[in-house]
Specification:
The chain has 174 residues and is α+β, with helices and mostly antiparallel strands. It has helices at 29-41, 49-72; strands spanning 6-12, 17-23, 90-94, 98-105, 108-113, 120-127, 130-133, 144-150, 164-171. Helix 1 runs antiparallel to helix 2.
């Protein structure tokens, strides 16, 4: 199914009963209610589906948050950024995201993917020239590592004045 959309249909022809539930909640809440109503109506097992599926959702959430923390833990040999935050600021073009603006804000970096106002958020330093973009809208599941390429071959060349020259976005894998 599509993330954020869930449907459940239970047919009990011998009892001339049907239960149908649809939800736009990606969690198990909607399913739990339909399971519970169907089970209670046909005299099924003594199961608290709402609690059971809620507990399962909480376990999955805890596991996912642990995996995210592990994925975002900088390597043991992580290095600091080579440049101050202002040097990474600029407008970049990404083959997938289109125009991407990086600005300095309150001593940190803010990335704005111009194709979607949902993809605007702070960049957290990860390692060297790599930063993590953790979008405020957590339902997007689109967090990414952003790596800036530095052009330092010839500091006298145009556009190579200690600024980041391009960036690459790679999804965070868990």
């Amino acid at each position: 199914g599509v993330a954020g959309v869930g449907t459940r249909l239970f047919l009990f022809p011998d009892k001339q009963m049907a239960f149908f539930g649809i939800t736009n909640d990606y969690r198990s809440t909607g399913s739990a209610w339909v399971y519970q109503m169907a089970d209670d109506s046909i005299g099924g097992r003594e199961v608290d589906f709402i609690k059971a599926l809620g507990d399962r959702q909480n376990e999955r959430t805890t596991k996912a948050l642990t995996q995210l923390d592990d994925a975002l833990a900088p390597p043991k040999d992580a290095t600091s950024p080579s440049l101050p935050p202002s040097a990474y600021a600029g407008v970049y073009r990404d083959p997938w995201y289109g125009l991407v603006s990086v600005t300095e804000k309150e001593g940190g970096l803010l990335m704005d993917m111009k194709r979607s106002n949902l993809l605007t958020g702070p960049l957290s330093h990860y390692d060297g020239e790599t930063f993590a973009a953790l979008w405020p809208n957590r339902t997007l599941r689109g967090d990414a590592f952003v790596t800036f390429q530095l052009s330092t071959d010839d500091p006298n060349a145009e556009g190579l004045d200690g600024q980041a020259s391009e960036k690459t976005v790679i999804g965070i894998k868990m």
